[in-house]
Amino acid sequence: MLRNPDELDQPSSGLQPNPTKKSLLRLCQSFYHQALHPGEKLETLQESFVGNIHKSLTWESMTSIVILSSDSTHHRTVSLLNWTREVLLDGATKAFFGNRLIELEPNLYENSVYFDDNSWKFTYKVPRLWSSDIYAAKKTAQDAMEAYFNLPKEQRPGATWLIQSLEAEMRARSIGESDIAAILMMTF
φ, ψ for residue 8 (rounded to 5)? Predict the structure, then answer.
């Protein structure tokens, strides 16, 4: 059931005030501005992001994707491209969503990187017959997002204010988990 637009500006149930009755698109844009412009929200996000990066830059946290060869416990040859991608994706994902999204789909990074590297197939409208790999990578990531939003909030701690606010506004407009996941996938 859709809510009355007059009820949507009420700050009850986690919704942000919306006295000018902005559309969901403009409201989301406003949330991104609030979260990513200098201030308390950006500082909180930044601290989480940088903290996650520091945790990812340890010897123990290197995954087999970044290690090209290892001849002992003291020497490793790594792919700087893969390591950078993984560290930044890990930092951003955990900063925005907490740890739960990665727990739900441990191969999220690999699928995201594969999708990113091959997204030209969408741009050039390569027929699905020859681009099924990219659809599979996108589906894996989107399914993980949908599973994430299907969980109760108590089971997915650590989400940033931005994600919580976007989700609350979309749910208030009766937007389902699969659509919330698809919308947030565009920015992920």
Answer: -75, -15
